[in-house]
Write a structure and sequence with these properties.
Elements (H helix, E strand, L loop, with lengths): L23 H10 L6 E5 L4 E4 L4 E2 L2 E5 L21 H10 L3 E5 L2 H4 L8 H16 L3 E5 L17 E4 L10 E4 L48 H11 L5 H16 L5 E5 L20 H18 L8 E3 L21 E7 L8 H15 L2 E7 L6 H16 L4 E3 L15 H7 L3 E5 L1 E9 L4 E8 L7 E4 L9 E6 L4 E7 L2 E6 L8 E8 L1
Parallel strand pairs: 4-5, 4-13, 5-6, 6-9, 9-10, 10-11, 11-12
Antiparallel strand pairs: 1-2, 3-14, 7-8, 14-17, 15-16, 16-21, 17-20, 18-21, 19-20
Length: 519
């Protein structure tokens, strides 16, 4: 594996002496015996945290990579100003200290003709997933959408198929819509009514024409248009088998990834709208849509996933306007195999990031599952926005919540191709990627560069606690203080990771604290 080079590993001296029962070669031997990434397919329903195959609690810092237009995947070649996802990109993310990518797998790209999957597209996505694995990055497979379809100035579901004209005629190729149909709503209610009194003119594919019209409507408000509400309602109600088609696509994705080590989960659908709120206004009450319409579709998809993959975690989202989740249960009722995926933007969230994280904690406890912040504002902005990002970093540490920023392309200055330092410093935080026990608290002070971790050890876990310490944040190295003395062996398997092996002489649980500060 490129991200773990045992021959280049460096051994740190342990404070005074090696812990009783631990030798330097034990640490090196563990990494030789476990050269790849740990499989992650379980949630501890008591701690409400994700755990790996060794029983360690896992935390993630990462970014989103989503292509919202044809060909529906990012190019592999790196170039300034181009939103790519290739080897240079995964090298960049590894150097930043990140360990997860939420990678968009467009349904439109995968199934351009109903019932016929584009294997070339899926193979490209798998190649990008493998590139991430080569550099120690987990992948959250995400079916992404924003305003559902190109007919609504959005993207997500398949839009049109190209079909030949009748044999023996001069007819050209025809565009055939297989998801969104023009006759679903009366002509006067077509997109973007009622945001505008007159529907947009469309081309022969049903897309607004000229495309510049899309810029005249706030995309986030498009969810309240009659046509978008109607289309979501049909998906949730399985009109014309659309819900079944969605579930079948997830079965296809799961069959492609079931043996893939670095896939941490399947994110069923990005930011699902509440459904046909014009037909049923109660869906606009926070929490109602979760149990009334979303839960059924999530179960439908999860059932299909489980026919080919019994282990990979299923990540599910609630409606974006939720305050507290309204789900009666997690998909298929198994909180040990599911993760609540949620976002924080203000608006639609009206409370602070800390209040939102506290609400999600309550959701996790009620649903007996884990939660991960899979989107938050991670782009350049005015002072208040940048302070909000700094506050979010502190809050996620305080609540011990993993996060995935939106989005990778925002990191770079499009002219120079260089990362914005104001963003890179937040991505390059110290954090515990794996904790060999129960984490009690952790924090990273961006001003001093000091990282602190407190956890309760588990003598049954032989794998190390792993702390990510990006070299860009610790250019001159770092010093480590551990209490109690002699409780761990320190080992550096690669340039960005500090491993702490709990002494094998410790037979009972103990509280261990580690402080890392720059030299």
């Amino acid at each position: 594996m490129l991200f773990v080079s045992i021959t280049a590993a460096l051994l740190l001296a342990v404070l005074d002496t090696l812990p009783a029962g631990m030798q330097a070669q034990d640490a090196e031997g563990w990494y030789k015996a476990h050269p790849g990434m740990a499989r992650i397919s379980q949630v501890n329903q008591d701690t409400h945290q994700i755990v790996d195959e060794f029983g360690r609690t896992r935390f993630f810092h990462g970014t989103n990579v989503v292509m919202k237009e044809p060909p529906w995947y990012r190019p592999f070649e790196w170039a300034p100003g181009v939103s790519s996802f290739g080897e240079q990109d995964v090298q960049n993310l590894h150097a930043l200290g990140l360990n997860i990518v939420r990678l968009g797998h467009s349904w439109a790209g995968a199934e351009p003709v109903r019932g016929q999957y584009n294997q070339t597209f899926l193979d490209i996505m798998k190649k990008q997933t493998k590139l991430a694995e080569d550099y120690g990055l987990y992948v959250l497979v995400d079916v992404h959408q924003d305003v559902l379809a190109r007919q609504f100035c959005g993207h997500g579901v398949p839009d049109v198929s190209r079909m030949r004209g009748p044999v023996g005629t001069a007819a050209t190729d025809m565009a055939v819509q297989w998801f969104v149909k023009e006759d679903w709503v009366p002509g006067w209610k077509m997109y973007p009514f009622p945001l505008k009194p007159t529907p947009f003119p469309v081309d022969n594919k049903g897309f607004p024409s000229p495309q510049s019209l899309c810029g005249t409507v706030d995309w986030s408000l498009s969810y309240t248009s009659a046509a978008v509400c109607n289309a979501f309602g049909r998906l949730y109600n399985n009109y014309d088998g659309l819900g079944d088609a969605f579930a079948a696509y997830w079965k296809k994705l799961a069959s492609e990834y079931v043996e893939t080590t670095n896939v941490v989960g399947y994110n069923l659908l990005n930011e699902p709208w509440v459904g046909d709120s014009m037909a049923d206004p109660t869906l606009l009450v926070p929490g109602v849509a979760d149990h009334k319409v979303l839960e059924g579709l999530w179960n439908r998809a999860a059932k299909q996933i489980r026919t080919v993959d019994n282990d990979t975690l299923i990540w599910f989202e609630g409606a974006t306007i939720d305050i507290l989740s309204g789900f009666n249960n997690v998909p298929l009722g198994d909180g040990s195999k599911s993760v609540h995926s949620f976002h924080y933007y203000s608006p639609p969230q009206l409370s602070s990031i800390s209040t939102t994280l506290n609400n999600r904690r309550k959701d996790n406890e009620r649903l007996r599952t884990a939660g991960v912040l899979t989107e938050l504002t991670f782009w350049m902005g005015e002072n208040q926005q940048m302070q909000g990002l700094a506050d979010a970093m502190s809050a996620t540490d305080a609540h011990m919540v993993s996060w995935i920023g939106w989005a990778y392309e925002n990191l770079y200055n499009s002219t120079s191709g260089q990362p914005y330092p104001e963003l890179a410093k937040h991505y390059s935080r110290g954090y515990p990627a794996a904790v060999a026990g129960t984490p009690n608290s952790f924090s990273f002070d961006e001003n001093s560069g000091t990282f602190k971790l407190q956890f309760t050890s588990d003598p049954n876990i032989k794998a190390p606690t792993e702390i990510i310490l990006p070299p860009s944040t610790f250019p001159n190295g770092y010093k480590v203080q551990v209490s109690p003395d002699g409780s761990v062996l320190q080992y550096v398997p690669n340039k960005r990771t500090l491993a702490l092996f709990t002494s094998s002489s410790i037979k009972n649980t103990i509280n261990i604290s580690a402080t890392v500060s720059p030299r």
